[in-house]
Amino acid sequence: MRKILLLLLALILLSCGFKNSNESKEINVLFIGNSLTYYNDMPQKLQEMMNETNPNIKIDQITFPGFSLSAHLENVIVESSDNNTRTTTKAPGELTATEKKLAEKNWDIIILQTGGVAVLIPESLQYKEDPAIKKIKELVNNDNSRFIIFNTWTTKMEYPDKYCYRGMQISQSLDRMKEYCSPEINNSKEYLELINNSYKSIADNNSLEKTDHGNIFQKVFDKYPEINILEDEMHPSDFGVFLSASIFYEIITKNDASDLKYVGEIDSKTAELLKKTGKINYR
User: Fold this and answer.
1) Domain for residue 206, yes or no?
2) According to the model, what pLDDT value does residue 181 have?
3) What is the CATH number of the domain that holds 204?
4) I want to staple 67 with a disulfide (CB 3.0 to 4.6 A). Which of 48, 71, 230, 244 is the partner?
C-alpha cells in the first residue's frame, strides 16, 4: 500500500513539474503587418493582458504604415515614422527588416496582417499576398510554429464602390496600365462577406488559422453603435484596440478574456462588454 501511495505521489509531482515547465517556457509571438496592427499600441496592450496571466508569452512586432505582406519581403526601409515610410526595392542579396526579424528567433506564433484592399482584388491576392505568405512560412525556423491570418474588419466607404490597382502595382506579368479590381461592393453586408471569404481563401490555401475580427467588429458596429471602435475610416480607436487585443488574447492563450482584470485605458463597463462580445470563433 505504501509503495502505491509513493508511486501516486511521484506521478503527481512529475505532472506538476511538467505543467510548471510549460508555463515558464518563453513563447515568442510576432505580428507582421501595418497600421491596422500597431495603431494605438495594440501589441503593447496585448502584452499587458499577457503579463496578468501568461508573462512567459512575449509579444513582438514588425509593422510599417501601408505595408502589404509582399512589401515586407520586397521593400527595404530608408526612413520610417508612425505615418509614413520611405523605401527602396530590395537589391539582390539584400534582406528586408522583416526577413531579418524572422531570423532573430524561433518564433512560436506568427500573426500575419495585410491591407484589406490587397486581399479583395483577386490578382493582388494571387500574384502578391499568397506568394508572400508562402515565403514567410519558409523563412520561419520553427517547424512547430502556429501561423494565424488576421481577418481584418470592414472600413467606412461610400456604396456602391470597388477597389482597383493597376497591373504595374501587382505583377510584371500583368498589363501595366490595366486596372484590376475587386467585385463591386453595394452594401456593408456584401463588404463583410467579401472580405471574410478572401481571408478564408488565404487560410485554406496556406494552412493558416484565421481570426474572426471581421464578424466580431461588425457585431459591435450593429449592436453597440454608441461605442466608436474606429477612430477614423479604418483604424481602431482605444475601444477597437482593446477589442482586438482581447480576441488575440483568447486565440493565443485559449483562456477567456472576461476573466482578466485588465481594462487598459477605457472604462471598466465598456471593457467588460467588449471582452464578452469578443468571444473568439476561429479555425
Assistant:
1) yes
2) 98
3) 3.40.50.1110
4) 71
